[in-house]
TrEMBL record:
Signal peptide: none
GO molecular function: ATP binding
The enzyme's E.C. designation: 2.7.13.3
Protein name (database record): histidine kinase
Keyword terms: ATP-binding, Cell membrane, Coiled coil, Kinase, Membrane, Nucleotide-binding, Phosphoprotein, Transferase, Transmembrane, Transmembrane helix, Two-component regulatory system
Top-level taxon of origin: Bacteria
PANTHER family per the UniProt record, alphabetical: HISTIDINE KINASE (PTHR43711:SF31), TWO-COMPONENT HISTIDINE KINASE (PTHR43711)
Membrane topology recorded in Swiss-Prot or TrEMBL: Multi-pass membrane protein
Keyword Cell wall biogenesis/degradation: no
Species this chain originates from: Exiguobacterium mexicanum
Amino acid sequence: MKAWIDQRIGRQFLFVFYLFIGLILLTSLAVYMYTENRIEQTTSSLENISERRTNATELFETWQSMQYEMRGYVILGDDAMLARVKEKQDLIEIQTAWFETNAVTEKEKTYASDARTLFSAYQQRVMPSLERYVIAKREGTVTEPFLKMPTLGKVTPQAEPPADRKFKINSKSAADMSASIVDMETVFTEYRNSLNEEENQLREQLATHTKWAQVLWLLSLLAVLLVLFIVARPYVKRLTGQLQELIVNSERLADERIIPIPAAVSSRNEVGQLTNSFRQMASSLATQRNQVEEEREKTARLLHSIRDAVIYVEHTTHEKFANQALFIMFNQAATKRNEMDLYRLDADLEELGFQVDQKDSFFSFMRRAFDGESMEESVTFSMNQEERFIQMYAEKIHLRGTRHGTMLVFRDVTQETEVDRLKTELVSTVSHELRTPLTSIIGFTELLRYRTMPAERIDQYLGMIHQETLRLEDLISNLLDVQRMESGKQTYHSRPESLHTILKETIAIHQGASEHHQLDLECDTNLYVYGDRDRLSQLFTNLLHNAIKYSPEGGKVAVCVTNDKSDVIEISIQDTGIGIPTSALPKLFDKFYRVDNSASRKIGGTGLGLAICKEIAEGHGGTIRVDSSVGHGSTFTIILPKYAAEDQLSS
């Protein structure tokens, strides 16, 4: 038998297992039957005691309630209280009868007999006396405000009570009657106390039985373990020795960096076969892991090298992986920089959508992509208030004919979108702005050529032709300036210049051209800036021209220069014109951008003037900003570096 068991490890395990199960079942069954019998007996007794204590408590509470009602009847003489007393008497009759029926022990029979005797004495002696007393008070025979026992004795005929009566209720003596009631309450209290003592004894017995059951089960378990230790120790010792090497190699295999290859063994049992299979598996895994690591690193480096952002979502595990470009595009923090693998994306895709301006379109596209719909088209959306434009498309990833995930590709098309926008704006602006003055020039030229008219009309038309020609020249100059700025060929011939002189000359030009506007200047004559005089004049000219143009009703245009700070000068140009909507302020200095409202469309413009102003201000090391409110005018503020006196001396 032993030799047959030793041939297979499985037989050894089964032998030990069956032996353990059999011993545990036998000992547990014996302990269970003993404990179940004891607990069932004790529980039944406890339930019986609980029922009797509950009924005794209810009887006592009913008795007390009846006495309270009776006292109220004596004091108030209310018949409704007397009716409730009768109801309590009926209930006491039922409760007392239960104890008489279910009394088993002598103590219970004595309690039932005492309860019946007390109830009968109260009904026969106390109740009639109190009722006669109330009747006497109603008839006026008794006039005392409070019940006095001698008075109760006078209205109640006294019969000689039996000599063996237990409760001697004497209505002539309040002390005797109180003592009898105390005796009555003592009957209830002693009976309930006896039930409590009996219950405590049973609970102690139950606890003792439970402890003995635990001790017996523990002793039986120790005995089973001792038998198993003696019987199974040789098998376990032999088996653990054979498996120890496999455990060590398995732990090394769990380390991703090491693939152990154990030595071959000559044993032919299951452990020997397992060791040889483990050796072959480890060798194969080492080769496959090297290949997988190489391919994964190659794939990761390829995806990290492209500028398009990529997200791969695994459908079964819902894990998300991304390349480096995604974190740059969406301003996300990479979890851990690793060029040999893709990044794990901890953020939800919904969080990425918070930066998208067209959220509904974005989430709709994502939902359709993950639902498996055909997604041949791509979608373009903007981010962070058109700060960046992204083109996105989705591809379904199948492995062995089964869809495993979805790949989302995000391509930054901001530059292409901006080029298309600038191209469209350029064509639109040039075609519109060129066509208008050219149409006027051609029309007036044809009139002068083919018609005879007075000299003053000819002079008027020539003036209009000259004005439209200057308008064309200004448009072409702006386009050339923008082209030079875009190509980086814009140059500045800087030298110290008086800011007061430049502003005064610029204001003088515009003051003469407008009769409905009042131009005011506040500037210290000792302020100097280091810059190109022509470009600074162009900057202030554009801003003053806009202030006048966008104040069609006329008004005041204030130019105020402050030098509260030691290193910069602030030049503010304030008008009281139509103002600029808040939504248009972030794009106001973009090329070809024009405010889209009815008032601005009537006035017109190329959308290049403010872009040139921004370039000139930044080219001089300064900045420009705007504050505006629709209907209340605008304030453009240019901040330029101050050119101090010591700078003049050093230069």
